Amino acid sequence: MNKKFAWISRCAGAVLAVVFASAAPWGAPAAQPLDAATSAAIDAAMAGEHRSDRNRARDRYRHPKETLEFFGLRRNMTVVEIWPGGGWYTEILAPVLRGMGRFYAAQYGSSSSFDYQREEMDSLRAKMERSPQVYDEVTLTSLAFPDELEIAPPGSADLVVTFRNVHNWFDPNYGQDANRLAFVAIFNALKPGGILGVVDHRWPDPAGEDPQAANGYMSEERTIEYLEAAGFEFVGRSDVNRNPRDTHDHPNGVWTLPPDLAVRPGDDRQKYLDIGESDRFTLKFVKPATE
Predict the structure, then answer these.
(1) Distances (CA, A) of 20 to 237, 247, 283
(2) DSSP 18-69
(3) Which residue from 79, 163, 213, 219 has the least number of CB within 10 angstroms?
(4) How many CA atoms lie within 13 A of 18 on its CB side?
(5) How many helices (H) and strands (E) does the chain have?
């Protein structure tokens, strides 16, 4: 999901090297390979006619199958997607879980003050209405601060996923204490032993990041710190969404890059197309089985 805020300051930073699927200190096992049924269902969803060519073109940057495999998706799970926006990942998750699991899409809330959120909520509703054979089992819920925090029945979710949203919750425009409230809502929705999967735009040097993430980037270190403070345990990281071409120093922050391409007159549009979508971290957490 995208905040349309400009970011002007520029600074250089080296790309953080990360280890694929590293185990946490407490010894959680690495993700198991997808079972055959889930693997086939993801392939079918990605190739489905309900997806636009524009959305399919994002697959090479967002690696949905590899990402969902790392998070441990199974067809019979109860899954919550936080702030699905226009529903890029919803297009994949909804048909994979249909008939086997349960799927909650926790949208922006009933009183959003952001135009882009209202537009994306309308877009997702229209998408669901056009293809009931794909989305008829999706349950829409809300995550809005400070009052709309029940994203699924308490203790019901096997897996919660959020894609490119965490940076928003550090921006005061999204509500006071938004990051704490979001992490509490996710923690409460998960079963003991349930998994949280996070993808966001990676800032390479935590010493130089903007505390309000106004450029759209977050460091892995700060994300892990806040989620551990919320009670989660860190399982590991994957490099699947890393993009070493991203220099992290764009005139309008992460929104300079595709798919937004928020470039200024005279900017070299092709330069940003050649970079592709942003450098992203992919992190996995667990709600402890005993608290």
Answers:
(1) 6, 21, 10
(2) --TTPPPTT-PPPPPPPPHHHHHHHHHHHT-TTS-HHHHTTHHHH-HHHHHH
(3) 219
(4) 27
(5) 10, 7
Whether 118 and 112 have beta carbons less than 8 Å apart is answered as yes
* Residue (of 127, 216, 209, 208) closest to 174 by Cα position: 216
Chain centre to alpha carbon of residue 146:
21
Is the distance from CB of 242 to CB of 280 less than 8 angstroms? Answer: yes
CB-CB neighbours of 250 under 10 Å: 23
pLDDT of residue 291: 58
Helix axes 64-71, 36-46, angle to 10 degrees: 150
215's tokens: 């450029």
Classify domain 36-286 by CATH number.
3.40.50.150
Count how many Cα atoms sit within 13 Å of the Cα of residue 108 in the half-sphere of its side chain.
26
Question: According to DSSP H, which parts of 167-213 are helical?
Answer: 178-189
Low-confidence ranges of the chain (pLDDT < 50): 1-29
pTM of the predicted model as reported, rounded to 2 decimal places:
0.90
172 vs 178: CA distance, rounded Å: 8
Q: Which two tokens stand for residue 108?
A: 């922006």
Give me the pLDDT at residue 7, please: 37
In the chain, what are the domain boundaries?
36-286
94-116 pLDDT per residue, tens: 999 999 999 999 999 988 889 99
Q: Contact 79/256 with Cβ under 8 angstroms?
A: no
